[in-house]
Amino acid sequence: MTNSLSLEIDGKNLTVDDVIKVAENPNHKVSISKSALVLMKKSRSLVSEIVEKGDPVYGINTGFGALSDKHIKKEDLKELQYNLIRSHCTGVSSPLSKTATRAVMLLRANCLAQGHSGINPDIVKLICEYLNHDIIPLVPSKGSVGASGDLAPLSHIALTLIGEGEVFYKNKKLPTSQALKQAELEEITLGPKDGLALINGTAVMAGLGCIAVSLAERLLKSADIIASMTLEGVRGTISAYDKRITALKPHRGQIDSCDNLNFLLSGNGISEISASHKDCGKIQDPYSLRCLPQVHGACRQTYLHTKEVMQTEINSVTDNPLIFADDKEVISGGNFHGEAISFAMDYLAMGMAEIANISERRVEKMMNPSFSSLPAFLIDDNGLNSGLMIAHVTTAALVSENKILCHPASVDSIPTSTDKEDHVSMGVTAGLKLLTIIDNVTHSLGIELLCAAQAIDFHKPLKTTAPLLKVHNLVRDHVEFISKDRVLSHEIDTLAYQIRMGHIVSAVESNYGELK
Known about the structure:
The protein is mainly α.
């Protein structure tokens, strides 16, 4: 159960929205339900029974992966878990963002809370304390192929739980031991199965996927808003958005996008710009304007599917082996495999890339006076001034990069661990490149927004619809009309930030109701 600033996890009821709230807000407190603690203690007791009995059981008193046939003596089991964590800390490159790492920690705790991992419940409590004190492990972003889940990045988190490695705490990078001392917390002591339970699973790829899904939702709404402004700027026709057309092709995404376009362009009063060319004789616009419900709608389908997959994954038990305490059994399987979410993130990557792809075409239409009847490159005295010419080139560059990044990670696999782990998901790779695509799309839409606001200004004193005017005013609060050439890169970044943080959407929704 949740309130605005707290979340109680039980392994079964987490939502993508919950993940984002905790990931983005260090003041959002996390605790474990009493029922989850009971289940974790129950599975932990079975682990203790197995240790006392001494028969070899994978993950408890054996080696790991290709070394699973090695039986480990009882007196070495503690050292086995420490060796596992330290040896698997092989990540490289820049660290995951603090937001991403918070998401990963929450997901790992939620998975363990279901009571099928045999972990000491105090370790899961410490993960929650890390979140509550905003102690963020430094987790190198590269080094996972999705073999047994996200072994290397999760090991870097686990390393800090035993008091080693580095963390970010109070805006400083510190040795974990120092941060724990300042926060008045103590590292945990690993026992049988603890280390493996901490590092075997899909929390990293799922955390990246949740963040991507949240950002994608904002981008999809923003794309409908910004495209509507472009349609106004080039004096396009809204006739293609007649709901009777979409009723004959009723994909949910197309219906939602079509409803948004009608809401923005004709649902809140008549646009003076639109009224001014009612009888212009223009019958059809180019596809990048005419087919907005169909293209934006198809992109929405990738979002809807990916969110559904993530919602299932974040309440799944994804480690190995699994403890079935009621049956007194420990069973080794493959729930750590991230194929489902890797596929989904690659699918969403294509959908997000297409948002930028069609946006770039609309930007081109605004640059081109033979189509738009606006000044070339949206600036007076062109020739002396280049206007938004090279802003268009930037979005073209981002779109082209996205086409390369859209090669699916999920169709790749590389065997490791002497071919024991012979087919892997590449889920973290899928997540990282998806977030790169989303960042590119955000900047592409920022460029279109910059251009569309400029185009609308050329129609003054005529005004656009009330919702779009709100967005236009927001743009002008941050970026002045371009009357002569100036440096634009920081202004593009500013508008991209407004899009990323949801401010463009809020400008509409806080005044006129929610978009779909």
